[in-house]
Amino acid sequence: MAKLSSHVTALFIVVALVCAFNPVFSVEEAEAKSLWNTCLVKITPKCALNIIYVVFGNGTLIESCCHDLVQEGKVCHDNLIKYIADRPSLISRETQFLKKRDDVWNHCVSISKTA
């Protein structure tokens, strides 16, 4: 339970950091923030955090989160990951993150088709 609590806390920290950087960026960021707010409500915090750990770290994808991800939709998934990957501290590894983003999406779609 403590592990889940720390994951949820980490998710909120990521969201807070992204929001904190928002005023520094261009008008396009307003669109990204709107998409973030629209898409974030379509996936559980547990699954959002799991997917973030998989794309940006060495996490293992929880298969039950694939359903949430596919329901969220590819546009939301792509834009949310791109939004995080565009942070200055991550930009040097953006290509790597975008590949992992696509790998996660393709895996989840294949699981959803067989379910």
UniProtKB/TrEMBL annotation:
Positions of the Prolamin-like domain: 38-109
Residues annotated as signal peptide: 1-26
Keywords assigned by UniProt, alphabetized: Signal
This protein's name: ECA1 gametogenesis family protein (DUF784)
Organism name: Arabidopsis thaliana
